[in-house]
Amino acid sequence: MKRTFSILTFLLISLFGSNAMAQSKVFTISGKVISSEESFALEGVSIVIKGTNKYTGTQADGTFSIDVSDENKILIFELKEYETQEISITGKKEYNVVLIRKGNSARLINNHQYYVPDATTLSIALN
Q1: Three-state SS across the chain?
Q2: Domain range for residue 84?
């Protein structure tokens, strides 16, 4: 009886342990962060995996890389003079992000972003 209990315990630990290890697959995400106005690379952008204490920052050329696991779903991009942006992780390995300077507003028209310095009316003739 004691031997059967030991074998059963071993099998349960093996089963649940391997299942937990399979769920925590880690992969690397990389990309580049640029400014919406001048399209130049942004250095020093803080990138955090939402709900964790894992973070990284962009290099001088705006590039970054961070290891994430399957259950981590959102990256938060922050820089002092720019609007904070949250990006959902969709399984891609590369994410290129455009940050909008605070005080500017963006309008999305036919999947193109147009930036307006003040929040006045935007009128653009579309074909």
Answers
A1: CHHHHHHHHHHHHHHHHHHHHHHCCEEEEEEEEEECCCCCECCCCEEEECCCCCEEECCCCCEEEEEEECCCCEEEEECCCECCEEEECCCCCEEEEEECECCCEEEEECCEEEEECCCCCCCCCCC
A2: 25-100
